[in-house]
Amino acid sequence: RTILLLAVMSLPPLVSPAAATTDPAVLMEQGHEAFQRGAFGEAYTVWKETAQLYGAQHDVARQGHALVGAAHAAHRLGRLTEAMQSLELALVLARSQPDVDGRAAILAQLGRVLLDSRHLDQAGEYLDQADALLADHPSPALRASVTHDHALLAARRHQPDLALTRFLETIRLADHTGLRALALHARVNAARTALQLGRHAESRTWLDQALGQASHLAANHDTASAWMNIGLLYRQLAAVRPDLRAPLLLRAAGALQ
C-alpha cells in the first residue's frame, strides 16, 4: 500500500491543454487549432480563457478577437445564447476601437446567430447595421460574407428569387476575393435554391461547379458538410430529372462516399 501511494504521488498532475500555459497568444493559437479540427468545445473553453487573460491585461482589441472566436465555437455547438453573450460583449469592446471592419463583422455574426435562432427581424436589423458600416468602409471579403448572410435571410423568409440573386452575388464577390470556402457554400446554396424554383439546369450548373471546387479544398468540418449537401442535392435533382438520373446518381455517389 505504501508503494502504491508513493507511485500515485509521483504522477504528474492532470491538466487540460489550455491550463498548460497562461500566455494568451499561445492559447489563441490553440483555439484556432482546436476549431480547425472540429473540437469546438475545446476551442470555446480555450478562447473564453484567452479573453479573460487579455481582459486582465486591458488589451481590448485582442480580448474582442478571443470573444468572437468563442462565439464562433459556441455557434457551432448550437449554444446560441452563449454565442450571443460573447458577441454582445465583443461589440461593446469594438465600439471603443477604430476598427470599423471589426464592428461590422461582429454585427454580421450577431445576425447569423439570430438567423439560426429564427429571430429573422432582429437578424435583418444587425445585417443592415453591418451594411451601413461597410458603405463607408468597403471591405470586399466582409461584403461577400454579409451578402451571403442576406441571402440566407431571404431564404428563411421564403423569398427564393431574392435569395438566389444574393447567392449569385456572393459567388461573384467570393471568387473575386479568393474566399474559396464561402464561394463553395454559396454555390451549394444557389443550387438548392434554383432546384426549389424548378430551374433544374441552373441547379446542375452550380452543383457541378461546387463539386469541382470542393475537390480542391482541404478536408475539414465545413468541406465535409459541403460534400454531403452536394451529394444529397444531386439525388434530389435526379428525382425530378429521370432523363439524367444515371449520371446524377453517379455524381451523388462520388460526393457521398
What class, by secondary structure content?
Answer: mainly alpha
> Which ranges are low-confidence, i.e. pLDDT below 50, for 5 or more consecutive residues?
1-19
Average pLDDT, rounded to a whole number, is: 88
Number of helices: 13
- The gyration radius over C-alpha positions equals 22 Å
Q: Helix content range of the residues, please?
A: over 70%
Q: Between the first and last Cα atoms, what is the distance in angstroms?
A: 54 Å
How many strands, what sense, and barrel or not for the largest sheet? Answer: none
Shape: globular
Annotation, overall tally of beta strands: 0
Which key features would you list for this structure?
mainly alpha, 257 residues, disordered N terminus
